[in-house]
Amino acid sequence: MRIVVDLTRCQSYGQCVFLAPKVFRFHSEEALEYDYTPDDQMREQVRWAAAACPVQAITLDYQDEQSETVSHSESVGDKI
Ligand code: SF4
């Protein structure tokens, strides 16, 4: 999972920091800092944070996981 935050949209409301403090934090008073590729254990908290953002600034990207699945099925297909 990868996190992308649209910082032009972020209004520093802090919901994400409150819900997933190990992933999102404020660097200075209003500058949001975050872990782009959080541990899988953080997945649930990150989802809550993204859902709670009042301006929908947080996007979650699962492309890495999907491409792993695709490459796996491709390799299975090659063997058939
Ligand atoms: S909840 Fe949304 S608006 Fe608030 S700090 Fe996080 S990303 Fe920014």
UniProtKB/TrEMBL annotation:
One MF term in the entry's GO annotations: metal ion binding
Keyword flag Nucleotide-binding: no
Lipoprotein is among the record's keywords: no
InterPro entries: Fe-S_cluster_ET
Key words, A-Z: Electron transport, Iron, Iron-sulfur, Metal-binding, Transport
Top-rank taxon: Bacteria
Signal sequence coordinates: none
Protein name as annotated: Ferredoxin
Organism: Dictyobacter kobayashii
